[in-house]
Design goal:
By secondary structure, this protein is of the alpha+beta class. 37% of the residues lie in helices and 15% in strands. Strands 9-10-13-14-15 form a five-stranded mixed beta sheet, covered by helices on one side. A three-stranded mixed beta sheet has the order 7-8-11, with helices on both faces.
Length: 417
């Protein structure tokens, strides 16, 4: 059956459909009943569908077509009709083709010869892997919107050309020619690499916070001149992690009073006394009613944030990133769920270590635990478990039974760089 064409298969199946005779004109029946047979034996509809390699919807369409038109080949309703959104070659389609050809000449990499075992007459042109079809279509739309006549000439060049044509005196024409020439030179110079090169690459730190409730991941990009410590020596410490985590809660939180957090098992960044003290502080000041933190066990260190990072790395490897702004665009384009948060001069790093060490003590044996729970029913206390099946153990982290804390009192700001 699979060796037959679609029309041949339809005609064969319609020839095997037999209507059950009930003494009533079948044209008056709303639902026609058929006898299904195979090799001169009556079979059920399920066996008939499997033996003829069709679906139930396909069979119903054939029965409806045969009832209305008889055993004749089916024809699509749009055959011979031209869609209203189709492009005509003389004007619109030719303009699109010209744009793609010029785009490939400007940004493409032509191969020296036609690849082996290829019937093409001309060598193909390879486009950059960082440019998708959506990017090229967006660029074409912007070009069409900028030009009223929808040509490939920019409005600036067109206005300067009109000045040259409409000049009356020789002085006006010379001035217009100089302006036009200067405009062309500036556009050409902006595409050059420039004379400056660096002996070491620019270092940018990446920190991600994924909020599963809104299906968005906020990626903090930290330039090397906006980090903590000399040459970013403290960019992975508790002060930076808690500062960005606090910023994510305050700026992108939904006002939730209970949250569940999953993070990797890194002791220097996440699993330390200061991060635990920060969540205990949020419970005491009333920013949350309950916080549950789960750490992956060794060997299972991938969480939802790493999925967003994988999209960034995949696009980063095949994209030219010559500046910090290029990296921002790469992260933004990597996925529909990735958002960029640029840590600039307005971002505030705070000294959370000194602030939290005064009111909270350390947790003995913190590395062996993978479950932490803070609750407003027991303020200043953390409940821990080594595995999910163990019983919770309470530990008191607050040094003062009745600490005087407020969410308006925050740690001191740390200078950048």
């Amino acid at each position: 059956m699979r060796e037959l064409s679609r029309d041949e298969k339809d005609m064969y199946i319609m020839g095997k459909l037999k209507s059950k005779s009930t003494g009533i004109d079948r044209s008056q029946r709303k639902r026609q009943r058929y006898i299904y047979n195979y090799d001169d034996r009556e079979v059920c509809i399920e066996a008939f569908l499997i033996m003829h390699d069709i679906g139930e919807k396909h069979l119903k369409n054939l029965a409806k077509h045969m009832k209305l038109n008889g055993p004749v080949p089916r024809c699509h309703g749009n055959r011979g009709k031209k869609p209203k959104h189709a492009l005509s070659f003389p004007d619109k389609l030719k303009r699109v083709v010209n744009f793609i050809v010029r785009y490939s000449e400007e940004y493409g990499l032509p191969l020296p010869a036609v690849p082996h075992a290829n019937d093409a007459t001309q060598a193909p042109v390879l486009l950059s892997a960082s440019s998708t079809k959506i990017d090229i279509h967006t660029r074409y739309k912007s070009v069409c919107e900028e030009s009223n006549e929808r040509s490939d000439v920019c409005p600036k060049c067109e206005s300067l050309r009109c000045r040259v044509v409409g000049a009356v005196s020789e002085e006006d024409k010379l001035t217009a020619l100089n302006d036009y020439k200067r405009h062309i030179e500036v556009s050409q110079d902006s595409r050059q690499e420039g004379p400056l090169y660096f002996t070491s690459p620019r270092k940018v730190q990446l920190f991600g916070v994924c909020m599963e409730g809104v299906a968005e991941q906020y990626n903090y990009l930290i330039d090397e001149n906006c980090t903590i410590g000399v040459d970013g020596s403290q960019s992975h410490g508790p002060n930076s992690v808690i500062s960005m985590l606090h910023h994510a809660f305050q700026e992108y939180g939904l006002g939730e009073m209970a949250c569940h957090i999953h993070c990797d098992n890194c002791a220097g960044q996440n699993k330390n006394r200061y991060v635990m003290a920060y969540f205990c502080w949020r419970i005491l000041v009333g920013l949350h009613r309950e916080v549950t933190i789960r750490f992956q066990i060794p060997g299972h260190t991938k969480c939802l944030v790493d999925a967003g990072f994988s999209y960034i790395k995949k696009l980063y490897r095949r994209t030219d990133n010559d500046s910090f702004s290029d990296l921002v665009r790469t992260v933004q384009k990597s996925s529909t769920t990735n958002r960029v948060v640029v840590v600039d001069e307005r971002f505030l790093w705070r000294d959370w270590k000194t602030f939290l060490a005064e009111d909270f003590c350390s947790l003995t044996g913190i590395r062996k635990y993978h479950y932490f729970r803070f609750s407003a029913m027991n303020p200043g206390v953390v409940f821990v478990k080594e595995t999910s099946v163990d019983d919770e153990k309470p530990f008191i982290m607050s040094r003062n039974p009745t600490p005087e804390l407020s969410c308006r009192i925050l740690p001191q700001v740390i200078a950048k760089g």
